[in-house]
Amino acid sequence: MGKDRVVLIIPLHRAPTLANFPWITLMLIVANVFVFLGLQSGDARVQERALDYYAQQGLAKWEFPAYRDWLAAHADAGQRRALFERFADADGAVAIQVLQSDAAFLADLRADKLITPQAKGHADWRERRDEFDRLWNAAFTERWMIHFSDFDPRRMFGAMFLHGGIGHLLGNMLFLALLGLLVEGALGHGLFLAVYLLGGLGSAMLSLLWRWGETGSALGASGAIAALMGAYCVLWGTRKVRFFWWFFVVFDYVKAPALVLLPFWLGWELLNLFWNKGAHVGFDAHAGGIVAGALLSLGARALHWERRDFLDEDAIAEAAADGRAALVKAREHIGRLELPAARALLEPLAAARPEDFEVRVALYRCARYEPRTPRLAEAARAVLAIATHSASEVREQKALYDDYVKAAGGALPLSDERMIAMVRRWPVIGAGADAARLLATLIERAPTTAGLEAACLGVARDLRTRGEPANAKRLLEKVVAAYPQSSEAAKARLLLADTA
User: Fold this and answer.
1) Could you tell me which residues come within 8 angstroms of residue 483 by beta carbon, excluding any fewer than 6 positions away?
2) Average pLDDT over residues 104-110
3) Of 80 and 223, the one with more pLDDT
4) What's the number of domains the chain is made of?
5) Domain Peptidase S54 rhomboid spans what residues (predicted)?
6) What is the DSSP letter of 36?
7) Who's near 300: CB < 8 A, 6+ residues apart?
8) Which region holds residue 237: left if phi is over 0, alpha if psi is between -120 and 50, else beta?
């Protein structure tokens, strides 16, 4: 993020999809690229013209001595004095930039406190200084970058979209794309944008506090991106995430709780802030951004504004994958009649997903192969009570029902109401005749069972549709005989008349 790295950590555990696409992140990237390639593109020429004018008009002969006197009068300006004197004779252009970055000096200079109206040539100097200011401020970057010792919220906002070079831009946009996908998905579009902008402002404020009184300026999106780093750690919390790390020439992928990255990222910035002062990198802004983003996300979590469905998606997918692997292994154990080992895998899955059809079928197989089958009825009930969602599941459920009835000597594992719900699905697999026979048996044995009449009419219609009018007719006649005064009987008579 604007510096040469010997340590790099990038979270890489979610791919963009249409459902989670980070539109605000894309908008921010486009805005940064537009500002750099469009609005900042002519700044080098503008500044070169301004510096040439400064030299040609001899402004240094008035302002350099004034700046030396001003620096000497300020005891806290030792660092700026050393920097200015280093370039005053060797590189005038750099010296001018140092002078121009000192907001406090420029304020006194423009107020005529340093070159007073009584000074010889003041009018000429003032005219040339005003023209130089006009040329200098024509640069887009100069109008929007942060100047230390100058609290300007407008600049603090604008500097977030400025960059000092193509490498600076590309590095920041890479991190913005990777972190934006994860944080925008966790917060939603509007809240993400608020965290990004407020985090960037918090980063700028800490940088100003840390560097107040220094000569210099700052620009770049890295403070706001650092806020996304802090937000990412807090939002994902103790969830284990996959990230890529690189240290000198060693690199790897690892999985760890996201929160452990917070002290590492923040510690790295603070370490460089105190021990790598000559790097010309805003470690203070990065640290401030991380803290600001973490605090903002703590607030979002306290208000339950985070999107838990997005945050838990990895864990859910991982649990599903683990479940599928456990089911495959359990089936292998069943094939080898290693039933205790199969149950050890299947029972936790069934407890977590009681409506999982495949898991319940596998548990039935375990019960079927056990000596004396003590758990067979319970296992059969669990499978047959599930509402199936496909023809293949209906077919397997029907086969399991037939197997159980045969093994149990004709005993039925379900209540009459549940039996009706199950057989109502049988015509889908061409087992409508079996459904009709079972429903006819229920009419004789338990005619008052809720939903029985409606199920009979539904199965009869399915049988007619599938070209089995004889089976449909027998079932309809049962309905008419058992419920002669009911509305279903009236409908059955109409269907029988149509069949005739």
Assistant:
1) 447, 453, 489
2) 91
3) 223
4) 4
5) 155-298
6) I
7) 187, 191, 195, 235, 306
8) left
Mean pLDDT computed over every residue of the chain: 92
- Judge if 347 and 395 occupy the same domain: yes
Q: How distant, in Å, are the alpha carbons of 89, 96, 101, 444 from that of 61?
A: 12, 12, 18, 116
If asked whether residues 249 and 394 sit together in one domain, one would say: no
Q: Per residue in 309-332, pLDDT tens?
A: 999 998 888 888 999 999 999 999
Domain shared by 118 and 56, yes or no: yes
Same domain, residue pair 208 and 275 = yes
317: in domain:
no
Q: Is residue 107 part of a domain?
A: yes
The string of DSSP letters for 227-295 reads: HHHHHHHHHHTTSEEEEEEEETTEEEEEEEEGGGHHHHHHHHHHHHHHH-GGG---HHHHHHHHHHHHH
Q: Is the pLDDT of residue 4 over 50?
A: no
Per DSSP, the three-state class of 490 is helix
476/440 Cα distance (integer angstroms): 10
Q: Is residue 3's pLDDT more than 50? A: no
Give yes or no: residues 67 and 13 share one domain.
Answer: no
Are 279 and 294 within 8 A, CB to CB? no
Residue 220 sits in which domain range? 7-36+158-311
**Listed residue (382, 374, 444) closest to 413, CA to CA:** 382
